[in-house]
Model the fold of this input.
Amino acid sequence: MIRNYFTIAVRNLLRNKLGTAINILGLTIGITSFILIFLFVNNERSYDSFHQNKNDKYRVNIEQDFASGDSRVVGLTSESTATWLSEEFPEVKQVIKIRPFFNPMVISNGDNFFKDNNLLFAEKHFFDFFNFELIRGNAEKALEAPASVVITDELAKKLFGDDEPIGKTVQLSGSFDLDLKVTGIVKKTSQSHIDLNAVVSWNTAHPQAGPIARWFSYSLYSYLQLHDNTDPIQFVKKINENAALKWPDDASNSTYTLQSLDEIYLTSNEVQFIENFKIGNAQNLRMLSILAFFVLIIACVNYVNINTAKSTKRSKEVGLRKTLGAVKTQLIFQFMGEAFLLVFVASLLALLMLDIVVPFFNQLTGKPITFNVDVVFSILPTCGLILVAVTLLSGLYPAFILSAFQPSEVLKTISRNKLTGTFSRQVLITFQFVISISLIAGTFLVLEQINFLQKKELGFNKDQVIVLDLDNSENLSRNFKTFQQLIGSHANVLQTSVSEDALGYGYTNNSGHVIPEGGNNEKVLTTWFGVDMDFIETYDIEVVKGRSFSRNMASDSSAIIVNEAFVRAAGWEDPIQKTIRFSQDWAPVPVIGVVKDFHFQALYQKVNPILMRIAPYNFWKMSIKISGNDVAGTLKFIKEKWQEYEPNYPFEYSFVDQKFAKFYDSEQRLLKAVTVFSIISVIIACLGLYGLTSFTIEQRTKEIGIRKVLGASASHILLILNKRTAVLLLLAFLIALPITYLSTDSWLQNFAYRIEIDLWVFLVSGILTILITLLTVSYQVFRATSIDPASTLKYE
Done:
């Protein structure tokens, strides 16, 4: 019996070559797209999944409220906070402090060196709290001794080749020089939000500067593990109540929150000062998952439409089988078997396609997703579920429709022609159009938002400004004034500035509450910029009140310039010569100017209060504004001067505009993905419509011939046959409009600055879908009208 069903299924699929080819192609593309996104989503969700007891481990964040009513979440805490959590709360099993170093450092072994952007300082129980795989060394003692370091296997290979690194000494250079003893090798992993290359013991001290961890006293990351059965919600409530009693001055505008270890990677978009950690985007992941589901559904809809359209051809077969004694369940089994066979073939082709398209998909997403035999075996259960689900989605409805035909009706030609009801197909076609229009409109809106982000006026000049990291070089840090003068002597160098922080990095090294006087007398949470006298002019920041810093005014070394957001938060009407205090114990500092609000962070956040002061030391960044003439020659000159002062440290630079563009890498990748899958969805929908139109025209071949004999023009016949499709497209447009508006508006809520959703986006999307669809249908109709009526009137 099974063999008979299989033979008949193969014969039917081969007999209807066009429908079979369209179904297999559509399902193959749909299943391939679904598995690709499944692999990507699975990869993103697997971050930090290897840590034991990950559901009981959290990062401690602080939510801070601004006087303006805005708020922010920061990932940094202080050493006193970590100690307080460890000592005063019995619910806490353990606390660990970690801190990536401020700036890139160079780790070297003789002539082999590596520039490390992910140098991490951590307490000795780091490998107990985080379960990174330690290949060699003792997890409990590897970070116990001062000046000890654990490096990744990749870094060990670069520094030592095939030699044994344990017990050897590596040199750390950059902001300071230090010798470190290698005490362990950890396996490099890309699946953690902590992107480490080297972990240095927390109690390491510099020979002259003392304990390095002292530099992190007010800016480190605290992670804690709660005891089993501890309710994190109640625990957060408890620590905030305790904090209100311990630090009453800060409790009104600072709240502690916990972020689960297994959620940190995907839920950190709104957390600030975590630039050294990897972050994903949970909302973009959800959008891609919905895209994958829609593409697969469109392919299933094609199968349903084409198979129900072929019902008149199969109806006589059904009638004969029922007359000969076949029952409905047997017929359903046969038709479901045909669907299973077709989906099985499409699934095999999809697995073959994956090997080809994965490299291109990796370029699209920026993720190194692998596809090999091991991956195939790992996703076989998922492929099995897809096979069953797609078989049911695509085959169940046609199977019930075809098996329900009655022999007394289907064996009559006239009655059989009445069995071609199209209501269900019209609903499904409309559904396809809704998805296609929504995806196309979504693509336009994402593109418009990204263009808005990249072109929005930031309040300063980001073009043709180069930033150098001086803190990477001890020589340049000591001699930056002479180096700055040499750079400024070049004709194409318009302005230079040294500062604690440069624009384009998205963060500063200092922030806190200050006390404005003469306003509303409330503390203002403020971001501090340590700058020199030329910072404002180098970035062309507009001074709207008062004046900029001046070398001719000695008092400016202890003066402040604030932004408009600070003035609003302080409640000042006239800010000039108002004063602020950094604490009650500090002397008041005068405000000499107000600059226009400018964005130094990505446009996810609003402009918050900012103050600029002349930094007495810690000039870590040099900003160089150059002309557009001979940029390559100017960079060559700067490099030559760099190498004169620092021959041992590689010359590296960044353009501020490129730094800002990187803020939106995830949105750029989302745009590419949405665009690709929008095109795929339209192609699959058009494939189905092409096949469906072919069967419809086949059924109406004689009608077309008669109309031509009676004098109907090809355009008139085209209008008649396209009329129903046009109505469905209009209905789909009306349904897609609110769906797309609500979904894109939800995505745009992530941005403090965003576009307004315009009607033209939906109109263009609808018109584009209509044109593509009507061209697909019209091609088939035009072919039918080109046939000689003498031939078509003989058609049966």
Remarks:
- The CA atoms of residues 533 and 550 lie 6 Å apart.
- The chain has 25 helices and 27 strands.
- Residues 413-421 have pLDDT under 50 and may be disordered.
